[in-house]
Amino acid sequence: MSLLEVKNIRKSFGKTEVLKGIDFSMEKGDVVAIIGSSGSGKTTLLRCLNFLETPDVGTISLNGKAIFDAESHTKTSDEEIRQNRLHFGLVFQSFNLFPQYNVKRNLTLAAELLETEKIKKGTSQYKSKKEAVEAISKNADVLLSEVGLSEKALAYPCELSGGQQQRVAIARALALEPDVLCFDEPTSALDPELTGEVLKVIRELKNAGKTMIVVTHEMEFAKNVSDTIIYMADGVIEEAGAPEELFENPKSDKLKAFLKSSFEKI
User: Fold this and answer.
1) How many CA atoms lie within 13 A of 73 on its CB side?
2) What spatial distance separates the first Cα and last Cα of the chain, rounded to whole Å?
3) What is the pTM of this model?
4) Separation of CA 142 from chain center
5) CA-based Rg of the chain, rounded to a whole angstrom?
C-alpha cells in the first residue's frame, strides 16, 4: 500500500485551469522531486497537498485512507482540515519565520499550541502542559542540532543568513512530525554559496528515511537525491520515472527542451 496516493487532482483559478488531472503515488521513505518551468503547476500542487488550496476535483489518500475527496469536501469540518494538514509539513521559498520570536520559539510554538488543545480534549500523550512543554523543548534542541544550528537557538531570524533561516524553517516543519515533508523551491531565495548547506540537510533527511516531495530547479540535486522525478508542464505530469530514465533518456520533447535549457544554465 502506498503511503500517499493522489488521484485526478484538478484546480482552476477563475477560467485558468492550473492543474489538469494529477495522478501519482509514493511509498514511505521515498523522495519525489518535481521539476518543470514556472507556471507548470508545481507550487499549486504542493499547496493542494497541504490544504492551502482546495482542489476542484480529485482525491488525496494517506495510508489507504482518503483525507480529501472533492465530492464531499463541503461536508469536511475546519477541525478535520486542520488535522489532515498535520500530515504534511511545508517549507516555503521565503522561510516565513516569525520575526518576533527567537529560533527555538519558532520551533516550539505550533507544537505547544497543538498539545495544549490535545490536553484539553484528553488525547495528548502528555499528562500536563508542563510535561508537554519540556518534551517539545527537548525535541526542538534535537532538531536544531540535526540542522547544525544549536548555537543559534536564542538568535532572531534577522540575525541569521538566508541559509540558516531556511534550515530553521526545515526544523520547524519537522517539529510536528509530518508524514510527508514538502519543499517549495527551498533554495530559490538563497545566494549560490548558501544553497549547499540547505541541500546537505535535505540529503541527510533522505538518509534518515524521511518521506519528501521537493519542488526544485536544482537539476543535479534532483538527479542525485530523488527516487522518482515528476516533470510537470502546462498543468499535467508530462513524464515521470526514475532519475536515470528521465535525465538520460527523456521521451517527451518538452522534457528534452527543459533539460537542455536547465543544464545550459549550470
Assistant:
1) 17
2) 38
3) 0.93
4) 20
5) 19
Helix (H) or strand (E) holding 91: strand 88-91
Contacts of 146 (CB under 8 A, 6+ apart): 171, 174, 201, 204
Record the cell numbers describing residue 123, joined without a space: 488525547
Buried b (16+ CB within 10 A) or exposed e, 174-209: bbeebebbbbbbbbeebeeebbebbbebbeebbeee
Q: What is the pLDDT of residues 88-140, one digit of tens each?
A: 999 988 889 999 999 999 999 999 999 999 999 899 999 899 999 999 999 99
Q: How far from 165 is each of 35, 109, 128, 171, 205, CA to CA, in Å?
A: 24, 16, 32, 10, 17
Q: Is the dihedral of CA 224, 225, 227, 230 positive or negative?
A: negative
Q: Which residue has the cell 477563475?
A: 14
Enter the C-alpha cell of residue 227.
527516487
The span from the CA of 239 to the CA of 220, in Å, is 18
DSSP per-residue string spanning 37-79: -TTSSHHHHHHHHTTSS--SEEEEEETTEEEEEGGGGGG--HH
* pLDDT per residue as tens digits for the range 141-162: 999 999 999 999 999 999 999 9
Residues 225-235 have pLDDT tens digits of 999 999 999 99
Task: List 90's β-bridge partners, or say none.
Answer: 182
